[in-house]
Amino acid sequence: MLSKLAYAAMTLAALGTASADTVLDEHFCQIYYTLDDGNCPVLRDTVRSEIRGEGTPTLELGDPTSQPALVFLHGWPDTSATWANQFAVFCGEDKEYFCVAPSITDFHPDVPLADPSDLSWIRQLEKYHAVIEELGLSGITLVSFDFGAIYGYHFVYKYPHLISRHVSMDIPMTPGSKDLAPGNVDFMYLPYYQQVNIYSYLAGDDKAMNLGINTVVGDPPCKACRIAPDAKIGAGARTGWGYYIFVKTEDPWTEDLSDIPYEQWEFDFIPSYPEDIPMLYLYSPSFLSPTFIDWIDQRGDGVSGHMLVPDADHWLSIRQPEIVNAKLAEWFSATNAHDGFNCDDKNPCDPLLMEGKYYYPYIEDEKFVRCSEHGKCYVRPCPDDEVWDRDLNTCV
Prior knowledge:
By secondary structure, the protein is of the alpha/beta class.
């Protein structure tokens, strides 16, 4: 866990020994920062490039010892600089949050190539966890996009005690679907770009991967970026490893994630989703999932929600940063999930009122506290059309 003293020493060291980082130096402003304010160079100078946990490169801004944390998970074919527009608005000691954006394994050109044994979804989760553990973070807001959204669902399932709320972007999870069972996934029925990614990874063919990105995927922001450590051209074949896990039958990903048989899972990506963790789903027109939207609407927690981001392709936080940032700010304000405290404190949480019950301990009338099964209480406002009822101990 990072102490205040250790954080101060780390900051001073970073100021005196800043070294080149391709992702920060070449991707952050030039590729991913699309806010029309001209402020990126100044912002970039404040962002720290670190190596955390089990050798994971991160981009960080703010003080992890005193600020609530936003943890950002990027996707394919992207780097952790994906979140430049969000760092600008939410992150830093002059803003509300400490932010950390870890890289997916082998998605950073400046670090050594990972051992093949590290190329699994469960190892990716463990590496994210090691970053969060080193920084001493809890009650985090997890923001995940694209393949990072898959990792986000897995992380919430695996480590719910660390999460206060979850934003997922443009990759839904499908209730009731069993389409992703290892051994049942037909390679030829996968989206063509995924077939190309798997072939390129297995063949070690950078040119095939680059051709697929430039002719099939659309217009990814970092389509010309060198991303994998061993890439000779473009993103590199190595970045396709996550897609191979879909069709890999040896050591299936489902058994890594859970002992629950896949046919009993509630969703295609995870066995279940914690009832006490609110979710916001932002999506482009291409990734509308009516069944997922219906599931969010039926949660009934008063805070989970969804929004279509207009006039955007898949990379919605880059194409429409103002709209995305405004929605995030609105939802963060409404949920107030960083105002958390342990349920085993003397006051305010009664252990008899656990498992998602709402009640009023000692705070303002318009607020309520939910005591979760994971041992945290979170102050949340009543919905706009409701008020707190002291006698009923609920919003009405």
